[in-house]
């Protein structure tokens, strides 16, 4: 929000990106997560997730720095790129079992607090 507000105050117009392209980018991110290509917001072409996240971090770098979050976000992104997120084991389980119910059951097991 800080980055967008700064651009607005500077009189910069917002990026003109069609809804269809935004939906495509969202679908691609949901489909492959951090294990496959994402759409680079500058070129709207597929690119490796690390490169796309670098573009995003460059875009919001000043706001992150001003708010004291730059290092923490860099570390978190590096961790996600290295280890993946919750989608990785879900995709792996679905590809090995072909059973969406097994994926949902495993997610429930992992997120249900122990009784008592």
Provide the gyration radius in Å.
18 Å
SS field, number of helical segments? 6
The average pLDDT value, as a whole number, equals: 90
Instruction: Calculate the terminal CA-CA distance, rounded to whole Å.
Output: 41 Å
Largest sheet entry: 2 strands, antiparallel
Query: Which percent bin holds the helix content?
Result: 55-70%
Order of helices and strands: HHEEHHHH
Uncertain stretches of 5 or more adjacent residues: none
Tell me what portion of residues adopts beta-strand conformation: under 5%
Structural class: mainly alpha
Number of strands: 2
Characterization of this structure:
- With 116 residues, this protein is mainly α.
- 66% of the residues lie in helices and 3% in strands.
- The protein is built from 6 helices and 2 strands; from the N terminus they run ααββαααα.
- Strands 1-2 form a two-stranded antiparallel sheet.
- The protein is globular, with a radius of gyration of 18 Å.
Brief characterization of the structure:
With 116 residues, the chain is mainly alpha-helical. It is built from six helices and two strands; from the N terminus they run ααββαααα.
List keywords for this structure.
116 residues; mainly alpha; two-stranded antiparallel sheet; 6 helices; 2 strands; 3% strand; globular
């Amino acid at each position: 929000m800080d980055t967008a507000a700064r651009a607005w105050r500077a009189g910069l117009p917002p990026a003109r990106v069609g809804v269809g392209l935004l939906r495509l980018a969202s679908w691609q991110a949901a489909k492959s997560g951090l294990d496959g290509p994402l759409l680079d917001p500058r070129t709207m072409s597929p690119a490796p997730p690390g490169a796309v996240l670098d573009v995003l971090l460059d875009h919001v770098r000043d706001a992150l720095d001003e708010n004291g979050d730059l290092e923490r976000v860099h570390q978190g992104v590096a961790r996600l790129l290295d280890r993946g997120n919750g989608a990785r084991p879900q995709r792996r389980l679905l590809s090995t079992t072909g059973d969406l119910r097994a994926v949902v059951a495993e997610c429930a097991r992992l997120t249900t607090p122990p009784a008592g």
